[in-house]
Design a protein that fits this description.
Length: 636
């Protein structure tokens, strides 16, 4: 503390020092009054200071108030509700350590997000793991196993609303003494059609339960949530936190660009981007549906560009493993199917009219609605609902054939780390979906880029082999996206691209597209699904004992569903434009990564040791019954 001498030459503290120290204290987790064990976990994760949503929501939650918070993607909403709820559990257990009740129920829309929240809970309870138990009941497992995990009344239960109702009705999940109810991504929970399940949960809640609800867009859902969980006769209304003003004041680290392109030129452009490294770093490519995933993957494979797919058809464990390996830097390109858009558009003109009505609601300022809420309402996990009721017979046939997981979500909630660029290969159908897609990059203060391809009306259906119905209204959707982003104070620019420099690549484009047939896509899709089913949890012990076999777990292996053309893998000098890649487009930057590289020397020694070669293969470390002679020395 700064001191100065007064008129009696006695040092005394200055007011400026006190005020500066108080201001500094307000910007730390320690000033929030959290348990010391939680502060240890926060320090270990190296979080310097709470984000705005954390600084505002945590004190309110610690006071026991109900909170409805809206903050942008990547602003730390998960920590904003986890820290105060875990703190409350620890406070209650400090007076009665023998109590065993489920005091916190966290509802999430997707299984991927449930796994991510579970990992966060385990990370921040690492210094009090004996006192706080957490269970995720969204996993696909035997019912007896789930029931056994719930028998001991874990402190925190993480579930989708459907699973919570299912186990609540069977009395395995007891919420009679619930203290906290958390709904993460509340708007998506409602758009997935969980309103009836939420109503059932609301009716079963005991009195005095604290309710915390978080989302990136939470305006049109306020009335629905208030009607479900907050009585109009309640003495205290919930506190609504809207951080739009703070977010608008922050300097944006996300650059947004668009490219006007024909349907077949999308493939030419993505080939040039990755082959010429116009965008460096990790990229998430969003496409419209599952078939589109494999079409783009097979196209890139012919040029030696490795990528992995992510869609609802793959097993949950495989999807989680893809995200985990991508975050570790094993893969640089993920091709993800944003299938909520496609499901929403199935059902013909009636669904199209519904989407138009919802877009009109956006223009009136009520925020964006997810296209096709009715179909999404029926799109549940088969394990939860028992039967599906899609609106259209074609949709029903497609759903039965693909057996996809309807609790899949990749553009919402999942924490993709160090993403350089989000590439919208197929433009989404609503500005709301666009907002959540681009939220996968420029997180936690890092810079990022969003690049979107759009097909003008006059170029639609000009190349039928690569055409999809979703591209018909690209210009209309783009205008609404631009309007919404302008309202937020951000600008979408046209990407500086010289198409004339790419003319030399067009004949290669034709060869590659001709090889990617419908049969090849179907075979690749079937093969990928079969391989991922084989890589199940049952083989976990085998791979732990045989780490060299882990290479078979890679998700970006070539499918070999199309004829390999060796000449396409290399770019000859005569194809390169004058001036190199700089002549095609300017450098858009790079998000630096800190990859977890394994020790090359240690790996080589372990490999030689397993084959009985090298210096370490003799002497200590081997089976003494095989390596020692009568004198007790290694055999020569």
């Amino acid at each position: 503390m700064k001191r100065k001498l007064n008129e009696h030459d006695v040092p005394e503290p200055t007011n400026e020092g006190d005020s500066s120290k108080a201001a500094q204290a307000k910007s730390t987790f320690a000033s929030l009054g959290l348990d010391s064990r939680l502060l240890q976990a926060v320090n270990r994760e190296k979080f310097p200071a709470p984000t705005p949503v954390q600084a505002k929501a945590i004190p309110l939650a610690l006071e026991g108030k109900d909170v409805l918070a809206r903050a942008k993607t990547g602003s730390g909403k998960t920590l904003a509700y986890l820290l105060p709820t875990i703190h409350s559990i620890l406070q209650r257990k400090s007076s009665n350590k023998r109590v065993k009740t489920t005091s916190t129920l966290i509802l999430v829309p997707t299984k991927e997000l449930a796994t991510q929240v579970t990992a966060a809970v385990k990370s921040f309870t690492s210094f009090c793991a004996q006192e706080v138990r957490c269970e995720n009941i969204t996993r696909k497992e035997d019912a007896a196993v789930t029931k056994a995990r719930l028998t001991d009344s874990p402190d925190i239960v993480i579930a989708t609303p459907g699973r919570a109702v299912q186990w609540g009705n069977s009395e395995a999940l007891k919420i009679d003494e619930l203290k906290h109810l958390v709904i993460d991504e509340a708007d998506l929970v409602l758009s997935y059609g969980y309103e009836e399940d939420l109503q059932s949960i609301a009716n079963s809640l005991p009195t005095g339960v604290q309710k915390l609800m978080m989302s990136a867009t939470l305006r049109t859902e306020l009335d629905t949530l208030s009607a479900l969980f907050f009585s109009s006769t309640a003495a205290v209304a919930p506190t609504i936190l809207d951080l739009s003003a703070e977010e608008a004041a922050e300097k944006s680290t996300l650059a947004q660009y668009t490219v006007r392109t024909a349907e077949d030129e999308k493939f030419l452009l993505i080939y040039a981007i990755f082959k010429l490294q116009l965008i460096k770093g990790k990229v998430i490519v969003f496409v419209a549906d599952i078939d589109r995933c494999y079409r783009v993957k097979l196209f890139l494979e012919q040029f030696g560009i490795r990528s992995c797919v992510l869609n609802s058809e793959l097993p949950v464990n495989s999807r989680l493993h893809v995200v985990e390996e991508f975050n570790r830097g094993v893969y640089d390109i993920i091709i993800a199917a944003d299938e909520g858009e496609v499901i929403g558009n199935e059902g013909g003109k009636r669904k199209k009219r519904r989407a138009e009505q919802e877009d009109n609601v956006e223009e009136e300022g009520e925020d964006e609605e997810q296209t096709g809420d009715t179909v999404l309402a029926e799109a549940r996990d088969e394990n939860e609902e028992g039967d599906e009721k899609p609106a259209a017979p074609r949709a029903a046939k497609r759903q039965r054939r693909s057996r996809s997981d309807k609790e899949y979500g990749v553009s919402r909630g999942i924490d993709f780390r160090h993403v350089t660029c989000v590439l919208n290969f197929d433009l989404p159908t609503t500005s709301k979906s666009y907002t959540h897609r681009i939220g996968r990059t420029a997180r936690a203060g890092q810079s990022g880029m969003a690049l979107s391809f759009y097909v003008p009306k006059e170029l639609y259906r000009k190349h039928k082999p690569t055409s999809i119905p979703q591209c018909e209204d690209d210009e209309i959707v783009l205008s609404k996206i631009t309007k919404k982003q302008t309202e937020k104070g951000t600008e979408i620019k046209e990407w500086a691209l010289d198409w004339s420099k790419l003319e030399g690549f067009r004949y290669r484009l034709a060869d590659a597209l001709r090889a990617v047939t419908r049969i090849a896509v179907r075979e690749a899709r079937t093969k990928e699904l079969r391989n991922e089913l084989i890589k199940s949890e049952k083989l976990k012990r085998h791979f732990e004992e045989n780490p060299e076999d882990l290479r078979h777990l890679r998700h970006d292996n070539e499918s070999h569903a199309v004829r390999q053309q060796a000449h396409l893998r290399h770019v000859p000098d005569y194809l390169l434009p004058t001036g190199g890649k700089a002549a095609v487009s300017k450098d858009v930057g790079f998000v630096g990564l800190k990859r977890d590289r394994e020790n090359r020397i240690r790996k080589a020694r372990a490999f030689n040791k397993s084959r009985g070669k090298g210096r370490l293969s003799k002497g200590r470390g081997l089976d003494p019954l095989k390596s020692l002679n009568a004198k007790g020395r290694a055999k020569k």
